[in-house]
Amino acid sequence: MILFNVLSSSNLFSPLETNGSTKPNISNPFASTSSFQSKASILDNMPSHNVTVGDISIAYKQMGNPEGKPIILITGASSTMDMWNPLLLEALISANYKVIIFENRGVGESTAGTKEFSINQFANDTLNFLDALRINKTDVLGWSMGGFIAQQLALTDPDRVENLVLYATSCGGSNDRPTPPEILAIDKNISMSEQEKMQKLAPMFFAPVRWFEAHPDYTSYFPIPKEYPIPKQIHLKQLDASATWGGTCNTLSSFTQPTLIIVGTNDDPAPDSLTLAEGIPGSWLIRIGEAGHALMYQHPDEFNRLLITFLDIHKE
Fold it and tell me: What is the pTM of this model?
C-alpha cells in the first residue's frame, strides 16, 4: 500500500507531461468554454447511444480519442451519466483516453429489464456492455456504488480490467456503513419536492459543513440534473442491491490490477479506504482533506491531477 494524505491546496503532483510524446489533436467538446455550467450543458446535450445487452438497453456516451486507451466510468446510486464532473471528462480527453460513460439498468435512458437488481447483475451488465462495444480491456473508475460494481467486475473477469480506480467506496458486505438515517429520512419523504431534497442533501454531500458554507452556490460546481435522476423505486432497489452485496472484504488479496483508492477524509470515518488499501496488494491510497462524498466536484484540480498521474504511471 502507498498512502498519501493530501491537503486540498496541495501541489504534491504537478501537471503532467507524458514522456514527451506527441498526442493527436483530438476534439475536446468542453474546451470551447471556461464556464462550469456551460461545460455541464455541453455534456447534457451530447447525444447518447443505445446498445442492447441481455434483457436491457444501455444508454451511453463516448468521447475523446476513438483510438485511445478506453476508460469506463461507473456511476453511484441515484446518478445518471450526465452527473459526472465535466472537468473530469475534459481531463481524461486531454490525456488521450477514449472515455465511456453509461447508465446502469433502470437509470436515465437505460431500461430496467426483468432481472434482479444486484451488484453482481450490474457487474454482468457492464461486462456484456464491454462485449457489445468490443472492448477487451479497459481502465475502470467506480464511484460509491459504482465502486462496488467495479470491484465485482475486476474479480469476475480480471483480464478485462487493466487499472482500477475506487472513488468514495468500500469493500461492502457486513463491514459496510449503512446509509445515514438522516439521509434516508430526506430521501423517503414523499411530501418534499425533489429540488427541496437536493437542497437539504447538498450540505451532507459536500462535507465538511464549513466547506459548504464557504461555497454555498453549488450550481457553480455541481451538474444539477433537469429532473430527479431516477424513479424512487429504482433508487430503493439500488440501495437494497448495495446492502445485500456480499462484498470483497475477504477477497481483497485476489485483486491483481494496479488500484487507486481515492476519498475525501470527511467521507471516510471508518476508514473504509484503509481496509481496501491494506487488503489490495500494491494499491495507492489518497485521502484528500476538507472533502466529502462529492470530492471530485469540491477539489476537481487535485482529483483530476492525482487520477491522471496514477493512470499515466500504470500505462502499458
Answer: 0.92
